[in-house]
Amino acid sequence: MVAGNWKMNTAQDEAKALAKYIVVNTQDIKNGEVVLSPPFVYLFAVSDAIKGSHIKLSAQNMYFEDKGAYTGEISPIMLKDAGCQYVIIGHSERRKYFNETDENINLKLKKALSTGLKPILCVGETLEEREKDITEFVVGIQIKKALYGIQDISNIVIAYEPVWAIGTGKNATPEEAEEVHFFIREMIRKKYGNTADKLLILYGGSVTVDNIGSLIEMKDIDGALVGGASLKGESFVGIIKKVAEKR
Ligand code: PEP
């Protein structure tokens, strides 16, 4: 899987043009999943632009209620209505700037699943946590709390995104990433058995067309969640092609 997180970028025309470029230039790629995650207000426009193609739509966040007096929030039902099949949950920017807690993330995951959306759960350590050598501890707690009370994880995707690598141009080495991906898969195996083998674990953090080739060689790296490089058609398509070649 390659998912593009457009964050708070693009204008409507750019969003439509980018989506169409990706549709046209990945038509021959049949293996794997390509997911686009535009800002909320462009979901319908992008949904229209990718209609009839193999590309899937994702939101960048959601609230954990269906409807009601929650000014400014977007419900999972609305996301489905807009054509989403996926939703990113717990992105580190939401944890950092919008006080997203593990408890909220757990509620959102449960609600997404019960609404029929596939969550892309983001986890990852800060630089300080990595330097203290507590990466696995931090990621382990994030996953444990996010999945609390969830019995079936077959529709969940996990994205390991070290915070120090997001938007910094400093990606984790393939070996550093693989170590954490392996840890995540084995942690999942302990609780969910062999479903762990089918779990997609994406790497995110300064992925480019130049570094994706060596990352995707790693046994437990099943794809990428891409921020900056997903905003340029050519680089995003390049990443998709390199992932498709290896899988
Ligand atoms: C992201 O926001 O999920 C991300 C990985 O961003 P970037 O690729 O720009 O580091």
Describe what this molecule looks like in 3D.
The chain is of the alpha/beta class and 247 residues long. It has a single domain, classed as Alpha-Beta Barrel (TIM Barrel). It contains 11 helices and 8 strands. The chain has helices spanning 12-25, 43-49, 76-81, 92-97, 102-115, 127-131, 135-146, 174-192, 195-198, 212-216, 233-246, and strands at 2-5, 34-37, 56-59, 86-89, 118-123, 157-160, 200-204, 224-226. Strands 1-2-3-4-5-6-7-8 form an 8-stranded parallel β-barrel, surrounded by 5 helices. α1 runs parallel beside α2 (43-49), α1 runs parallel beside α11 and α7 packs across α8. The longest helix is centred in the last third of the chain and has 19 residues, at 174-192. The radius of gyration is 17 Å and the shape is globular. The mean pLDDT is 97. The protein binds phosphoenolpyruvate. The site of phosphoenolpyruvate has 13 residues, from β8.
Give a topology summary:
Elements: E1 2-5, H1 12-25, E2 34-37, H2 43-49, E3 56-59, H3 76-81, E4 86-89, H4 92-97, H5 102-115, E5 118-123, H6 127-131, H7 135-146, E6 157-160, H8 174-192, H9 195-198, E7 200-204, H10 212-216, E8 224-226, H11 233-246
Parallel strand pairs: 1-2, 1-8, 2-3, 3-4, 4-5, 5-6, 6-7, 7-8
Helix pairs in contact: 1-2, 1-11, 7-8
The protein binds phosphoenolpyruvate.
The site of phosphoenolpyruvate has 13 residues, from strand 8.
